[in-house]
Specification:
homodimer; mainly alpha; 8 helices; 56% helix; 7% strand; DNA-binding
DNA sequence: TCAGATTACTTGTTAATTGCAAGTGAAAAT
DNA sequence: ATTTTCACTTGCAATTAACAAGTAATCTGA
């Protein structure tokens, strides 16, 4: 369901360029990874992730991802200070992209987390289905 | 074939982070796209690509991609001024990543090049095989 | 109840990266 | 011999990222 109007001027409408302009930085995909694979949902959790994103960059990226409909934000009903960030369906649809990136690294670069790679390699479709199923079951996603 | 030693300090060894640190900017994947899908092989061709990369950024990215073994550089035997840039096998292995990014954009954002998307959607494996076959036939790749 | 902690930020400030314009040297074409 | 092409480099301005500190709203524990 492509949008009828670009929200910013794009360098080109090439579908690869579009995704690069949305996701091509050093943090966006890591935030999405934390949501998809680690079920992170709060600002503090993202801040405490291993790669140590700066607070202003995190705030900026969360806004950008929400603006693009990749994540959604809701208030925590149990704690007025907290916001809950969740992946939208559009965000979940990035699972294959992340998966292929992980496989590429596994094949060509030094890396960690052999268990994740074992799982993906064993049955990619099953892995993707499981990730999506977990997301469906959370059911706190509101697109 | 992962390298035994990281060439720079990485924020983390998470396989997604590794690929993000190598490819997560606004130009690297576009250069790879031009090599993979459009058979671009020279500095001038990359410069003339629609998105208009700056000359210093292009030089910088070509060096980075070569350093990571994603592309290889050779002299043009017919013209002493020219260099020929080609994808290595490691670079070709990015085809699934690019393909999934294109599919994601096709599903969720306004974009162009419906013919490419039609091809990929029709038979993804066949598309990937064809891209690799074209690369093999060029046979000017030296890893 | 109220001091202290927690949460999700913002606001400086500095450092790094990007983008633009112009220039360079070697090789090729005219 | 001069001009053009090629793959860059250099200098500088503008944008972006990183770091440190602060803030308002909310919650928690004595």
């Amino acid at each position: 369901m492509p949008r009828s109007r670009p929200r910013t001027k794009l360098r080109s409408g090439c579908p690869l360029n579009v995704s690069v302009e949305i996701l091509g930085d050093r943090w966006s995909l890591l935030i999405i990874r934390d949501m998809m694979l680690r079920d992170f949902r709060s600002y503090t959790q993202f801040l405490e992730s291993y790669e140590r994103i700066a607070t202003n960059i995190l705030a900026n990226r969360l806004k950008k991802l929400e603006r693009y409909g990749i994540i959604a934000t809701q208030q925590d009903p149990l704690d007025g200070r907290k916001l809950i960030y969740t992946l939208t369906e559009k965000g979940m649809d990035l699972a294959p992209v992340l998966t292929e990136m992980v496989l590429w690294t596994a094949a060509h670069e030094e890396h960690q987390n052999p268990e994740l790679i074992r799982q993906i390699k064993k049955d990619k479709q099953k892995f993707l289905a499981a990730v999506r199923q977990r997301w469906l079951e959370k059911s706190s996603h509101i697109d």
